[in-house]
Specification:
binds magnesium ion; five-stranded mixed β-sheet; binds guanosine-5'-triphosphate; globular; alpha+beta; Alpha-Beta Plaits
Length: 250
């Protein structure tokens, strides 16, 4: 079971209009500060936040209670005057957890006494989170023959392919910066991942390395996924047999 919390700025659209037209720089500063603070507060509780949209952030919150959310909500209220809603969803897959979080917010199913935290009563199941850390093999040499914007355009195409492919497996892909992507998955087998790697190689001539991590919390799962990825690099650089996918479990 995956637990996902969607944090959204409430009444953001109408509020942005009150700032006049010289507002873009202020919105960018606000969004970047919000992401920083959310990553900071949730990582202290062993979770990892994913930059979904700049005004809406996903956090994988396995192991976190409603009270933990309330605590974070109160901290955020000290730093930001804007309202923030938190919608918590649980599901068998990350996609289902996202649907349930959204359903709770739309139907205004309030958790506890705080009216801006939505969700059904949380089930305490000790399930594991699986995160895949994907990284382009040799992006530095790709960048050497392309302009910076051509590289960005390629990264966007890869992200689009990845999102489509993994959404069909009920998994959620996020761009994490540079040539890095993370996918919150549920029991994806290595064969499916290999299919995706083949597709990208055929369509774009790009190879990905792929570290998989499984643990009780999202921060630990990401740590193991990155460790697996670093191990793939070590094997490659020591001249051993090429390996594109490696998995570590807590
Ligand atoms: N989000 C994130 N970004 C990273 C990480 N490691 C490196 N980066 C970024 O990714 C960029 C590319 O770095 P690398 O992937 O090491 O470069 P590369 O040439 O592709 O090398 P290999 O991946 O080893 O083949 C860096 O400039 C950083 O911006 C990471 O763990 N997470
Ligand atoms: Mg790379």
């Amino acid at each position: 079971m995956i637990q996902l919390t969607i944090i959204k700025i409430t009444g953001y659209g109408p509020w942005t209009l009150t700032l006049g037209s010289d507002r873009e720089h202020r919105l960018q500063i606000l969004q970047a500060s919000l992401y920083k603070e959310i990553q900071n507060l949730f990582s202290e509780k062993n979770c990892l936040a994913f930059p979904n949209r700049f005004d809406e952030i996903f956090v994988i919150t396995n192991g976190l209670s409603v009270n933990d959310h309330v605590e974070i909500q109160e901290q955020l209220a000290k730093s930001f005057q804007l309202g923030l809603s938190m919608s918590i969803g649980q599901g068998r897959t990350p996609y289902e957890a996202n649907l349930n979080a959204d359903k709770a917010r739309r139907s205004k199913i309030i958790l506890g006494k705080y009216r801006n935290i939505f969700g059904l009563p949380l089930k305490k199941e000790e399930d594991l989170v699986q995160i895949i850390h994907m990284d382009v093999d040799g992006s530095t040499s790709i960048s050497a023959s392309k302009s910076p914007y051509d590289v960005s355009s390629l990264i966007l195409k890869l992200y689009s392919n990845m999102s489509d492919f993994f959404l069909s497996k009920n998994s959620l892909a996020f761009f994490m910066g540079g040539d890095n992507f993370m996918i919150i998955s549920s029991d994806i087998d290595k064969e499916s991942i290999s299919k995706f790697l083949d597709l990208v190689r055929r369509q774009h001539g790009v190879s990905f390395n792929c570290g998989i991590g499984t643990a009780k919390t999202s921060r630990d799962a990401a740590k193991l996924a990155t460790k697996s990825l670093d191990r793939i690099r070590e094997l490659r650089d020591s001249g051993k047999k090429e390996q594109r996918i490696l998995e570590l479990t807590c």
